[in-house]
Write a structure and sequence with these properties.
Layout: E1 5-9, H1 15-24, E2 28-32, H2 36-46, E3 49-50, H3 54-59, E4 63-66, H4 71-79, E5 93-96, H5 102-113, E6 118-121, E7 124-125, H6 127-133, E8 136-141, H7 145-155, E9 159-166, H8 170-198, H9 203-210, H10 218-229, H11 239-255, H12 261-277, H13 286-294
Parallel strand pairs: 1-2, 1-4, 2-3, 4-5, 5-6, 8-9
Antiparallel strand pairs: 7-8
Helix pairs in contact: 1-6, 4-5, 8-10, 8-11, 8-12, 8-13, 9-10, 11-12, 12-13
């Protein structure tokens, strides 16, 4: 069976290595980014075709993969003025790998189905290092076995752990819930280190103890030592992006009528950090905001 023609939209920190792995897997690939210079350079580097517009990308694709900052941007890129969906043929597919709102994904899927275009949501976990090695974890929402099987062929070029989460939108829901747990864990560990420091504990020693005890989590093991204790604050994952994911989880709790105080407090804490230093900063810099608050500043 011949490989399908793939279009990839969004060549940022994650999209660039992800699209490179699609090209490496042998797919005929067309790429697009709002930054045309980036599009041209990246296409040349990986042996892909650069598209000068979303419409051109749609004309040259059987399957379009999006990796964009928000679901709204995905929707605009797909069905807005000049969007790629207007030039996709019936029988095409969109795989959205962004962190999007589940309800918005279902709405977009409904619109695309009317155009004869299938929709699969497949957000990722693993950050840039695993995007580069093609070993991302993927959470896949698909409305049929056929859609999942078709998407899986492309997705395996970017990830080695694929989980079918259910129907369309469940992948995006799982991504938000996972990142909420990660954000809550980072916040809890940060607060513990802040309190410990005020009590005379060395943060490095406190962290080492957590990591061989029951308090360990992803952040204590992978992030806080290098980024917070050693002062790098450069994990590569932006504050605005993590706050957005936690906000999606908090909004899901509200929409379900679920009285869940921890998710409400977690989003309040991350929004406080974003308001104080701006979403463009690394998410680990939230520690600085919380430490200042604890010190009455």
């Amino acid at each position: 069976m011949s490989l399908e023609k793939i279009g990839f939209v969004g060549l940022g920190n994650m999209g660039a290595p992800m699209s490179a792995n699609i090209a490496k897997a042998g797919f005929a690939l067309t790429v697009y980014d709002v930054d045309q210079e980036r599009t041209t350079k990246h296409a040349e580097a990986i042996g892909a075709k650069p598209a000068s517009s979303l419409a051109e990308l749609g004309e040259n694709s059987d399957v379009v993969v999006t990796m964009l900052p928000t679901g709204k941007i995905v929707t605009d890129a797909a069905i807005g003025a000049g969007g790629f969906a207007h030039s996709l043929k019936r029988g095409s597919m969109l795989i959205d790998m962004s962190s999007s709102v589940p309800g918005g994904s279902r709405e977009l899927a409904s619109t695309l189905v009317d155009k004869g275009i299938a929709f699969v949501d497949a957000p990722v976990s693993g950050a840039v290092p695993r995007a580069t090695t093609g070993t991302l974890t993927l959470m896949v929402g698909a409305d049929s076995d056929e859609d999942y099987a078709r998407a899986e062929i492309v997705l395996k070029s970017m990830g080695n752990l694929l989980f079918r989460t259910g129907s369309v939108g469940t992948g995006h829901a799982m991504k938000a819930l996972n990142n909420y747990v990660a954000a809550a864990g980072f916040a809890a560990a940060s607060e513990a280190l802040i309190m410990g420091k005020k009590l005379g504990l060395d943060p490095a020693v406190a962290l080492e103890i957590m990591n061989v005890s029951t308090g360990r989590n992803f952040s204590t093991e992978k992030t806080i030592k290098s980024e917070v204790v050693e002062g790098r604050f450069a994990s590569g994952f932006g504050l605005a992006l993590l706050t957005k994911d936690v906000r999606i989880a908090a909004d899901l709790a509200t929409s379900l009528g679920a009285d869940l105080p921890l998710v409400a407090q977690t989003i309040a804490w991350w929004e406080k950090a974003e308001a104080a230093i701006g979403g463009a900063r690394d998410h680990t810099e939230a520690f600085k905001v919380w430490e200042e608050a604890a010190n009455g500043r």
